[in-house]
Design brief:
This is Dehydrogenase with different specificitie. The chain is an alpha/beta fold and 304 residues long. The chain has a single domain, classed as 3-Layer(aba) Sandwich (Rossmann fold). Helices cover 43% and strands 13% of the residues. It has an eight-stranded mixed beta sheet, with helices on both faces. A two-stranded parallel sheet has the order 7-8. α5 runs parallel beside α6. The longest helix has 25 residues.
Length: 304
């Protein structure tokens, strides 16, 4: 079963008739999520990414495994809200229902930069782009909740790195946000804190949908291997003995999406696997969560 006590092969129920979306599905956790879910007979898996060649490889992997599952790729650049808007409309118009959404795409500890819309890049990708995509898909998601026996869920990938942030610096989000020493990790923590707070707010506003945030574990994926030498060494030194392979890291989001509804609390943050996660003053700050919701609504109003 592995380090984490959850076995996708036996503990994920039949997904017959389920329509599923995975962001960032062309590599790492996203690809593994698609592979594992495809073994349980969903009706349709949709996924996003920026690499058509990698997407073709994922689709071929599923087809070669003889899984009778429809798989569709949508090109989407999460550094561009206009690209997210285009993809969101395309996804929404291509399906009549949507049961599971994995907000899986993300970046970690990348150099100072901004998105094409001028937002700090980690916050723009990890939080704002996903918030827009979900907003564009909400009509389909809400419609699906109205069907008998439905169990609609959204799973946001966060990280215990959220503890590196004690607030969200709203006034400077439209900048590179120079935060000094280890600033790249502080900016990352801020974006991961936003994932937790936003999931909780979304659950309050749309209680018919089960919405949670999860930490997948400390995984040696491209997010780590692609870091600068210093940042990679920092991550490795601070996580000695705690890193797990992708096959383990995928389990918490698979659990969150497929465990019995009575086993999961709407708006909660979970660590691997299915354990209520740690908190900080910032992650429990309802005023900060409400401010994030209001700020996000204002920033995205021209795209929805």
């Amino acid at each position: 079963m592995g380090r984490y006590k959850f076995d996708p092969a036996t503990q994920i129920p039949s997904l017959t008739d389920k329509v599923i979306l995975v962001t960032g599905g062309t590599a790492g956790l996203g690809t593994e999520t698609i592979v594992q879910l495809s073994k349980h007979s969903p009706q349709h898996i949709l996924f996003t990414g920026r690499n058509q060649k990698a997407a073709d490889s994922v689709i071929q992997t599923i087809r070669s495994a003889a899984h009778n599952v429809e798989v569709t790729f949508f090109m989407c650049d999460f550094t561009s809200l206009e690209s997210v808007k285009t993809a969101g409309h395309a996804i929404a118009s291509s399906v009549s229902r949507l049961d599971l959404v994995f907000c899986n795409a993300g970046v970690m500890a990348v150099p100072k930069a901004t998105t094409k819309d001028g937002y700090e890049i980690q916050f723009g990708i990890n939080h704002l782009a996903h918030a827009l995509l979900v907003k564009l898909l909400l009509p389909v998601l809400v419609h699906t909740t109205e069907e008998p026996g439905s169990d609609v869920r959204i799973v946001f990938n966060t990280s215990v790195g959220f503890a590196l942030a004690n607030t969200i610096d709203f006034p400077t989000l439209r900048s590179e946000q120079d935060m000094g020493a280890l600033g790249t990790f502080k900016r990352y923590g801020q974006s991961k804190l936003a994932n937790i707070l936003y999931a909780r707010q979304l659950a309050e506003h749309y209680p018919a949908i089960t919405i949670v945030s999860i930490h997948p574990g400390i995984i040696n994926t491209g997010l780590v291997s692609g870091l600068s030498t210093f940042n990679r060494q920092f991550v490795n030194l601070t996580t000695i003995g705690r890193q797990v392979p992708i096959t383990e890291g995928v389990k918490n989001q698979l659990w969150a999406a497929t465990t019995k509804k009575e086993s999961i609390v709407n708006g909660m943050f979970y660590e691997p696997v299915g354990k209520v996660g740690q908190t900080t003053a910032a992650s429990k700050n309802n005023k900060l969560a409400a401010e994030l919701w209001k700020w996000t609504e204002e920033e995205l109003k021209s795209f929805v």
